[in-house]
Amino acid sequence: MFGFDNIGKTLLVLGGIIALVGLFFLLLGRTGLGRLPGDILIKRENLTIFFPITTMIVISILLSLFFNLLRRF
User: Fold this and answer.
1) Is the pTM of this model over 0.70?
2) What is the count of structural domains for the chain?
3) What is the pLDDT of residue 1?
């Protein structure tokens, strides 16, 4: 069964993964993604709607390329 050692290691690994994902998003924000032409931003008095259509297409292409490269090795 699970002992405290295994739970502690699992939590440390999950915390590290969450920290890496957070760092990735911080660096991704500096690249300009989210402000590309084709991203829709609607601002009203009490409402803001954001549709990052172009950003999602770019991320999808990059992830597809990355995972296809991983599958080949």
Assistant:
1) no
2) 2
3) 59
